[in-house]
Amino acid sequence: MIYESGNAIWTAEADGSGKRSLDHIPSANRFFARAFPSFSPNGEFIVYFQQAVGPMGDYWVIPATGGSPHQLTHDLQWGGKPAWTPDGHNVIFPSKRGGTITLWRVGMDGKNPEPVTTGLGQDAQPDVSADGQRLIYTSTRVEYFFMVTDPKTGKEEVLYRNRRAFYFPRVAPDGRSIAFFAEVEPREQIMLMHSDGHSLRQLTHYKSHEANIMPRWWPDGQSIIYYQNLRPASLRRLPLDGGPSETLLMEFDWELNMDAEPSPSGDRLAFVRTDPLTRERRVIIRRIETGDETQLDPAITHAPSWSADGSLLLGTGNDKVVVCPVTGSECRVVVDASNEAQSGLGFGNGKYGREARWSSDQSHIFYSRDTDEPGYFSLWRVKFDGSGDQQLFDFGPVHPLAHRFEVLPDDQILWGRYERSDSELVLAWISQNPSEP
After folding, report:
1. In terms of CB atoms within 10 Å, which end of the chain has fewer, N or C?
2. What is the pLDDT of residues 182-232, one digit of tens each?
3. Region for 6 from its dihedrals, namely left if φ exceeds 0, alpha if ψ lies in -120 to 50, beta otherwise
């Protein structure tokens, strides 16, 4: 048998004995994408998906007895569970290499992958019949929404919707515009629209395999910063008047330097640095001009947010909502849900936390908790001093990697809905000759 445990791939005898890890496979952050390892029909090889940047990666093949892995695809795209053809000569795999998740076929030499399915759905979980003539897979239709919810009434309004994925909206300081990133073939790009959902335009454009993600507003509202997340990764600043972008920090990728937020004065950045070996997360405050860094109390591990005067950072970590002085002094716990998390009512996985955001006047804090229903969260509000904790409404379903929300200037809540249809099982005949359709 073959299976995943932690960040490693393991093999074992059918009774569970003789287990060993495949040591030549580089470590990967399996939080973003699983490996889905699978034996070839004769048991000599293993194909797996190797995460590289966020959820994106490629398929590799390694001898089942160990040895050096061989790269099968060179797409750096979203993937999933692969399947071998019975002769062991080809692998059928899901990939976004064509713009949406569809099935592709590639030989062991890795040359010229060819499409097996096409369309706007998500085709995944392939398996091939023993005679190699039929393919079964799941097909799912998805749709993405930006929603605005009134915390006082719970009334929801659709702001924007699309079949192509878009994520992580950020509201301009004056509340008039929303920046986000979206899937635009062949890579993600930064988008901008009015806060009423109209006048959509694309701010960044594809070149040299760039993937541009996670925009944040500069304090003056006249420019944004964003991650150019394909190596060599960088943090960049782009004026909205159409001028060229400039590099703020080189070798600054989102996975290891997450949630960069400029201070209200624009002279500092707060971000979450992740140790690539231990995966420990710490908030760092960096002076942009000098590069000097201050490491904060480890209480915040997720989504730091500046106070209006630049003296405090709000964030979550270890099932707590905390406020931390930027001087490095001890943090103050506003909400402690660690006991509730033991019973499944808190913030879920304390390693990653949930979102906390300031109200428009910063007298209150909005934050989210897990619910009993997967993909749904509960929005709460608490006063700055920790009193008056109040549940407001549940929201969802949301994408498993995009549960963030934003607070509009009138304290309306902006969030992203992710809807999947029921998966259909599709049975299809496939050609024995990869050059034929």
Report:
1. C
2. 988 778 899 999 999 999 999 998 776 778 999 999 999 999 999 998 878
3. left
CB-count burial class (<10 Å; 0-12, 13-18, 19+) for 359: middle
Q: How high is the pLDDT of residue 341? A: 58
| Centroid of chain to Cα 197 | 23
For 57, 85, 181, 244, 252, the CA distances from 95, given in Å and listed in that order, are: 10, 17, 20, 32, 26
Among the listed residues 378, 314, 322, the one whose alpha carbon sits nearest the alpha carbon of residue 348: 378
Domains along the sequence of the chain with CATH: 2-140 (2.120.10.30), 142-171+255-420 (2.120.10.30)
Beta strands in 96-240 (DSSP E): 102-107, 114-115, 122-128, 134-140, 142-149, 156-162, 166-171, 177-184, 187-194, 201-202, 212-217, 223-228, 234-239
Question: How far does CA 121 lie from the centroid of its chain?
Answer: 20
Buried b (16+ CB within 10 A) or exposed e, 388-415: eeeebbebbebbeeebbbbbeeeebbbb
Sign for the pseudo-dihedral over CA of 353, 192, 263, 282: positive
Lowest mean pLDDT: which of 122-136, 256-270, 292-306, 348-362?
348-362
Q: Which two tokens stand for residue 123?
A: 């085709």
Residue 415 · residue 147 · CB < 8 Å: yes
Tell me the per-residue pLDDT of 374-417, one tens digit each, with 9 for 90 and over.
899 999 999 999 999 999 999 999 998 888 999 999 999 999 99
- Residue 167's alpha-carbon distances to 144, 176, 180, 191, 330, in angstroms, are 9, 18, 6, 10, 33
Q: How far apart are CA 277 and CA 214, in angstroms?
A: 24
Task: Specify the range with the lowest mean pLDDT, choosing from 159-168, 216-225, 363-372, 427-436.
Answer: 427-436
What was the pLDDT predicted at 432? 60
Give the β-pairing of 312-317 and 45-53: unpaired
pLDDT at 148: 97
pLDDT (0 to 100) of residue 155:
94
3-state secondary structure of 341: helix
